[in-house]
Design brief:
Layout: H1 2-16, H2 48-69, E1 76-84, E2 89-97, H3 107-171, H4 177-212
Helix pairs in contact: 2-3, 3-4
Length: 221
């Protein structure tokens, strides 16, 4: 239905991360599963999660610098004239003021900022490990799916040949209808397995493309 189609294109637009909504697909995506491509592991340090954690750490470092700059007392000097009534004389006077407490040195805020930095660095390390694991898993998954797709295609070819020979035997009166029906069913099952494997490969390709920060499936031929 149109609603299902619109929802599917909306999901595809979100996954592709493009500004212009996708409203049609000019080429069959299943053909992408037949294209051999060099598979390279995505850079874990380029993952959005790691980049966000890195930005948080940098913000924590900046906060420490701000709090350390506030540790220096803001001294102020005042100068004025004072008149003494006893002898009707005047004199220059000067004063020095500093915020209280003078020796606090903003230790509390600096300690809090340092604790925040430690937590941000821990989150950054965790994000790096997660990104590395996800990158390795995505490449391994694509390799496993490639093997499954190759096996499914070989099975489909064998089932197709078996059906061809069975049909010849049936048309020649040497085989029963049930054998032809079974061969046709086996061929349909083999084709379904190939289709499932191709769809799974597309899913693995999409996951890898997302980690690599490139367009979904790249340019279509």
């Amino acid at each position: 239905s149109r609603a299902v189609r619109a929802t599917a294109f909306g999901t595809l637009t979100a996954l592709a991360g493009v500004a212009t909504p996708i409203t049609s697909i000019p080429h069959s995506l299943l053909a992408t599963a037949d294209r051999e491509a060099l598979v390279s592991a995505p850079d874990p340090l380029a993952s959005p999660v790691y980049q966000a954690a890195q930005a948080n750490r940098e913000a924590a470092v900046r906060r420490i610098r701000v709090e350390q700059s506030r540790a220096t007392p803001d001294l102020s000097v005042s100068v004025g004239v004072r008149r003494f009534q006893e002898d009707d004389s005047t004199a220059m006077v000067a004063g020095l003021s500093a915020p209280f407490p003078l020796f606090d040195r903003n230790r509390g805020n600096i300690s809090a900022a340092q604790a925040e930095l430690s937590a941000a660095e821990a989150r950054l390390d965790a994000a790096r490990l997660d990104a590395q694991a996800e990158a390795g898993a995505s490449v391994a998954r694509l390799g496993a799916v490639d093997s499954r797709l190759a096996a499914a295609r070989e099975g489909e070819l064998a089932a197709d040949e078996a059906y061809r020979l069975t049909r010849i035997g049936y048309e020649g009166g040497k085989l029963a209808l049930i054998e032809l029906t079974n061969a046709r069913r086996a061929l349909a099952d083999a084709r379904a397995q190939t289709l499932d494997a191709a769809l799974e490969r597309l899913s693995a390709q999409a996951a890898l493309a997302r980690l690599q920060g490139r367009a979904l499936f790249g340019d279509q031929p």
